[in-house]
Structures are given as C-alpha cells and as structure tokens.
Amino acid sequence: MGVSLADLAQSLSVPLSLVYSVKSRGSPSQKKSLSNQIIGIHLLIGQVQNLVEECGDPVGFDAARWLGDWAFSANDALGGLRPADYFDTVVGQGVVEDLLAAIRYGNYQ
C-alpha cells in the first residue's frame, strides 16, 4: 500500500509490537482479529481495482498504492478524518466501502 507498518498498525488500532508478534506468539483470537482486518483491507483494494477496471484505465494502475495514498489523507466526506481511521472495525471498513462506492457512482462530495 505504500504506507509504513506503523501507520497501518495504528489504523487497525493494534500496537505495532502485536503486528510483529502475532505471527509467532499471538493468541488465536488476536490472529483471527488481525487477519479479518487485513482481509477487509484486501477487499477494499479489490474494490478500488474493480472501480478502475470498470470506469477508468487500469493499465499501470496500482490499486493498493492508490488506496494507501487516499486512505491515509484527510477526507472532507468523513469530517476531516482519514478513511484509514475506519480500518479497525468491520463497520468502519463498511463506511470506507460505501465512500468508495459513492466515488464510483459520482455521489462523492
């Protein structure tokens, strides 16, 4: 995504040390929670890729990089918060998904 692991950990509301340790020492519930959050971000990347394939020119487009740039910048539609601030829950990721859909359909403000 072109963002630091520290920024990603912060957006997921998990300590950076947990991200490093989950693989080797994390509890099953920690691993499942973090895995679900990461899967959600992967789905958002896929949504961006689909948007560009359907509505734009996907040649040379890097959906993960675009999402990283966009999600870690303040967004007026979110009251100045960053979309990444919503990555830590399924509901929050749904807010980001809806915002991306609004962009796709031209309902973005």
Automatic annotation (TrEMBL):
It holds the Pfam family Xre_MbcA_ParS_C. Residues 64-106 form the Antitoxin Xre/MbcA/ParS-like toxin-binding domain. InterPro entries: Xre/MbcA/ParS-like_toxin-bd. This is Antitoxin Xre/MbcA/ParS-like toxin-binding domain-containing protein.
